[in-house]
Design goal:
The complex is a heterodimer of chains A (114) and B (112).
Chain A lengths: L3 E4 L2 E5 L4 E7 L4 E9 L5 E8 L4 E4 L2 E6 L4 E6 L8 E9 L7 E3 L3 E6 L1
Chain B lengths: L3 E4 L2 E4 L4 E8 L5 E7 L6 E7 L2 E5 L6 E7 L2 E7 L7 E8 L7 E2 L3 E5 L1
Classes of the chains: A mainly beta (114), B mainly beta (112).
Chain lengths: 114, 112
């Protein structure tokens, strides 16, 4: 059974700092990995999708990497801003047949202080 | 347009009521999903539809009944719910089962 772990569970940083969020998964036979952002009481916003054949993806100040063999992904946020404060969720998708199911980590609660 | 819409935003219902949640997307996606999310927990998959056919049912109680009337719409019919069913219900869609998932804003359901 795929398990996804996110470390740290919570992180508080001053504005402007660069930071890294970590995600690890137990089954390396993933199809893709997706990073989401969730504001309190809101839906999930997709930030980046990395296919199993890719090593990294970038969008603006965000960079996500994937090391499938070691079962790890990182989300790098450059020059953090108070508006980045949210819960960040990592989710992996296993392939095979029709069971393309997303397995989520418990998330990292990020607070960026002005 | 990468928007998934959900109605209503909030719903309060008694344990004897029947209500429905609605989800809509116009991205031409052929896979649609229902998730349940409790406070401070990650989303839990409930149902997956692919090409308007139920593909995955994660052993959800029968008081939750999904329906996919066409490729753009997904409904979740609710009947005889319990207070522990109170949660944020999220809908998502993707191009196919393997594609990037896009989520709606959710419906906050309270069962009294």
């Amino acid at each position: 059974k795929q398990e996804v772990t996110q470390i740290p569970a919570a992180l508080s940083v001053p504005e402007g700092e660069n930071l890294v969020l970590n995600c690890s998964f137990t089954d390396s036979a993933i199809y893709n990995l997706q990073w989401f952002r969730q504001d309190p009481g809101k839906g999930l916003t997709s930030l980046l999708l990395i296919q199993s054949s890719q090593r990294e993806q970038t969008s603006g100040r965000l960079n996500a990497s994937l090391d499938k063999s070691s079962g790890r992904s990182t989300l790098y946020i450059a020059a953090s801003q108070p508006g980045d404060s949210a819960t960040y969720l990592c989710a992996v998708k296993l392939g095979g047949g029709s069971n393309y199911k997303l397995t989520f980590g418990k998330g990292t609660l990020l607070t960026v202080n002005p | 347009d990468t928007e998934v819409t959900q109605t209503p935003k909030h719903l309060v219902m008694g344990m004897t009521n029947k209500k429905s949640l609605k989800c809509e997307q116009h991205m031409g996606h052929r896979a649609m999903y229902w998730y349940k999310q409790k406070a401070k927990k990650p989303p839990e998959l409930m149902f997956v539809y692919s090409y308007e056919k139920l593909s995955i049912n994660e052993s959800v109680p029968s008081r939750f009944s999904p329906e996919c009337p066409n490729s753009s719409l997904l409904n979740l019919h609710l009947h005889a719910l319990q207070p522990e069913d109170s949660a944020l219900y999220l809908c998502a869609s993707s191009q196919g089962l393997a594609g990037e998932q896009y989520f709606g804003p959710g419906t906050r359901l309270t069962v009294t």
